[in-house]
Amino acid sequence: MSSPSAPSPARTVAGGCHCRAVRFVVAVPPGAAVVHCNCSICTMKGYAHLIVPAGALRLETDPGALAEYRFQTRTARHLFCRRCGIHSFYVPRSHPTGHSVNVHCLDPADRAWAATLPARAFDGQDWEGNIAGLRGDG
């Protein structure tokens, strides 16, 4: 009789902005996927989402290095470095108690690891019609 295997632990990765004024570490849970959204802001930023639960991201630098932009429903907190303007992570409207980390802002070795994760597309141009599937309740 074989014993059930233990769940894989979270993988800790690190990243930040171009000028390094914003640095973070994040515990990526098993089963994570990279989400590619085609909404207006994600398309313009070239954002590749790695969505993690609340408490998984730890900012290692001064929070004062971040500026915030909100639009439409004002639920999402689009955070970016005040100095270089890079969007390393933010609080998404889809998961307002978690974070979306920009895979492109991970450190090189962690970015290479993230490239091995499954990828999925999200039709953010029809956000309301598709959000249940992204959240896993549809």
Mean pLDDT reading: 91
Termini separation: 36 Å
Strand order of the largest sheet: 8-9-4-3-10
> What is the ordering of alpha helices and beta strands?
EEEHEEEEEEHEH
The overall strand count is 10
**Describe the biggest sheet?**
5 strands, mixed
Task: Assign an overall shape.
Answer: globular
Indicate the low-confidence ranges by residue numbers.
none
> Can you count the helices?
3
How much is the radius of gyration in Å? Answer: 15 Å
Tell me roughly what share of residues is in helical segments.
10-25%
* Structural class based on helices, strands and sheet pairing: alpha+beta
Percent range for β-strand residues: 25-35%
Topology:
Elements: E1 11-16, E2 23-28, E3 34-37, H1 40-45, E4 48-52, E5 57-59, E6 66-69, E7 78-81, E8 89-90, E9 99-102, H2 108-114, E10 119-122, H3 127-135
Parallel strand pairs: 3-10
Antiparallel strand pairs: 1-2, 2-5, 3-4, 4-9, 6-7, 8-9
Q: Can you give keywords for this protein?
A:
138 residues; alpha+beta; three-stranded antiparallel beta sheet
Report on the structure:
This protein has 138 residues and is an alpha+beta fold. 16% of the residues lie in helices and 30% in strands. It has helices spanning 40-45, 108-114, 127-135; strands at 11-16, 23-28, 34-37, 48-52, 57-59, 66-69, 78-81, 89-90, 99-102, 119-122. It has a five-stranded mixed sheet with strand order 8-9-4-3-10. A three-stranded antiparallel sheet has the order 1-2-5, with no helix packed on it. It has a two-stranded antiparallel sheet with strand order 6-7. β1 and β2 (23-28) form a beta hairpin. It is globular, with a radius of gyration of 15 Å. The N and C termini lie far apart (36 Å). The model has no long low-confidence stretch (mean pLDDT 91).
